[in-house]
Amino acid sequence: MQTTFPRLLLKHAAERPDAPAMREKEFGIWQALSWRDLLELVADIAGGLHQAGLRRGQHMVVVGSNRPHLYATMLAVQSIGAVPIPLYQDAAGKECVFPINNADVCFAFAEDQEQVDKLLEIREQCPQLAHIFFDDPRGLRKYDEPGLMAIEELMAAGKVYAKQHQDFLKTQAEQAKPDDVAAMFFTSGTTGNPKGVVHTHDSLLDRARAGAAFDKLTNAEEVLAYLPPAWIGQNIFSYAQWLSCGYVVNCPESAATVTIDLKEVGPTYYFAPPRVFEGLLTSVMIRMEDASSFKRKMFQAFMDLAKRVGPDLMDGTAVGLADKLLYKLGDWMVYGPLRNNLGMSRVRVAYTAGEAIGPDLFQFYRSIGVNIKQLYGSTETAVFVCLQPDNAARADTVGLPIAGVEIKVAANGEILVKSPGLLKEYFKNPQATAEVLTHDGWYHTSDAGFIDAHGHLKIIDRVKDVGRIKGGANDGAMFAPKYVENKLKFFPFIKEVVAYGDGRAQVCVMINIDMNAVGNWAERRNLAYAGYGDLAQKPEVYQLIKECVEKVNVDLAADELLAGSQVSRFLVLHKELDADDGELTRTNKVRRGFIADKYQPLVDGLYGGKTEQFIETVVKFEDGRTGSVSATLKIEDSRTFAPVKAAA
Amino acid sequence: MSDSNTTSNPTNAGTGQFPAGPPQGKLPPSGGSAVHAVTNVGGQFSAGPPQGKLAPGGGSAVHAVTNVGGQFPAGPPQGKLAPAGGSAVHAVTNVGAKSIGDVILDVKNISLSFGGVNALNDISFDVREHEVRAIIGPNGAGKSSMLNCINGVYVPQQGTISFRGQTFKHMNSHQVATMGIARTFQNLALFKGMSVVDNIMTGRNLRIKSNIFLQALRIGPAQREEEAHREFVEHIVDFLEIQAYRKTPVGQLPYGLQKRVDLGRALAMEPQVLLLDEPMAGMNMEEKQDMSRFILDVNDEYGTTIVLIEHDMGVVMDISDRVVVLDYGKKIGDGTPRQVRENEEVISAYLGTSH
Fold it and tell me: What is the ipTM metric for this complex?
């Protein structure tokens, strides 16, 4: 069964030449690209790249959003034995310098003017970057930088080359072996330089097949590709599994139209990080509040029913006949239309991963009949390590190890994985490779967790982040910052949280309110505000957040292990944490250490018992300029609760 | 056009130097995409190479359209959109070609008064083909009146306006539109209850040939014609990046987007000259950057000549090739942004010295 990406392309083009491989919405109409057309596209690009000098074993950067030309370029690069490196399209220019120089990249594919500008900007630091091919020529006509060329031109040259060299693509493709390097992904890395994760054809495709077998995916699936192609998840769902199963990948028109496109495409296999699911739900709920009172009541009544019996029906457990019939009625009147509105009418399998999902949110989707599940994996494991079976999806676990995977928990609580999908190495970084990959083939995930009574894996936090409370009433208690942060983030009003407590006597948090949710809440209360900073400091908002914090404390108190992590003090930040300011990673995870340094006065204020604290911070605007914002932030105490002893 | 080089250096087009009114320095000297586009403006004049690359002008409509969007994958004609009745769409003239040409619009000795108020006093200036020409001036300087004269809304008491060699005593609105002069409005005149696409479709009105009955029934040639026009509109939607709002009623859109729709409707006329009345009024910096980029892209990709009124000096100095300055109905300056910026009279008008 071992194969390579180019061989899969040839196989689909031979077996189902007219079946659609991709669709792209352009000028308001979904345009299909068949496997035959795709093969031709790939052959042209491959010929062009070969002629331009790209050789076996070299690397090529691709940067842009999900477009057929971007995918065709990745395939073309792989076909001639070179290695594509997808980069995040919203990364700043300087973030691209390291990958390009690290892999000595001379060739790049850029989606449009924005990406071309970015690459040209860093050309001085990357002098070897000789060729840049762009897809969308808009705004680029006047550019006469050397080596800049439209992909169309490259394809025209490649077409001529392909004519002269019969079966160029085929002979090239057949030279690739399954254990050759297929792609490289740079991990965002919270400290130091990013690391290039090297994957082979087989490591990616083996996991793609295992995942597909687990969920019985066929070539009839429809997928919407809307997350960055540089992220391995998107790469697995819309590239590795796409070629492995031969289903259709749909490219949205633009980032702004994703929700519209979602409804039009009606994917059957869907992936989204929790925040997307949350955003979809919020948009529906906001509209529901504006509905007539009859509709609102009907919605409420059926949602209560769904909450009670929906998850059980989903899991296949027995439910009373009356409830079953009522649910059927609800399905017809509420759940069906709701799923349709969310663009999930046809979803057979939906996954969420990347961060913890709120139990309410998770159950909501399952209760209305969307088969949402969680998975566990990372760039280094080619995603699929653990998956939840259809009938055993839980909000607090990440599923069972799937075919080919072995898992064990190390003494320090770290999860170790052995799987055919493990990375080959970190590029030019044997030291980092040795740190995570032991000689006997175990990969150290650096996640702390355990396997529960049902064999499901449960993740608590990163191993290095799990700390201990020092001093005070809870001396020595375990402190899992992410666990606390996630619990708070499950409230719609809270967007981001940073928790501190390791080596301290108590836990303190800094909170970012969710502008949409709190803004809406304030409007309904006729609470006037000037902007984010102003709204964040309203006493009413502090009261609202305090209630959330105390609810979390009650929850934490019920868990003997984590009762010591209850939040004693909190403040609401005056600005939204932003990846551009380095406060979040590109995948939107908080960088706790960085934030602690940047907001040192606030941390001191929290632990110094102050009731307010002045802070001035430098911010970076989207156009690259910097400015500063300052504010005096209030700091409040929150109630903590005595741990509830587990009933023996 | 050696004098037009000032715009080629955006840092030089320094917004801070000009002692203008409130909106100073809002367009940052470097960074955003709008500014990058500005850099291109300079390139327009570096005579020679860039022109050769452009599409041959006046091709068939579908051909021209492909160039405009530039997104059709090449190779197998994926342009399944190209409708059977493509002939209905008229050839887009002057697509692409962008090098400043001869005088296309010549305004001579225009005087306009309302009763005792002299709105315009013996104003003359010309507009060259493919250039971006700005009209600036303090409030009440007569900028909008000037546009309204060109547009045929007002009839000047004296003076003539020549368009492409034809001289008119006064312009007639309908005639102006058929001649290829389109405009946008300072305070938007969109159909608030209609969708974005429908609003832009109204810009195709003059080009629809089939009669009202066929259109009402949407049969035969009328349907094909509508499809062809709709395709053209889709290219504008793509161009202005408003795909997410196709079906949204215009009234529900934020102001910045409404301005974009307004521009889209004017573009739907395939104008040779586009009159923009304060396209950036009331916008935030990001919206201004976007709008600047769209204006430059229109100028660049379609070769459309642009006459714009604008208050934001930073924007004007960055995107225009030449600037006319009006004050109390009189012309007090005319030339490249740099010349205008150094003009004593202009500085005093903007500083508001005692009158």
Answer: 0.73
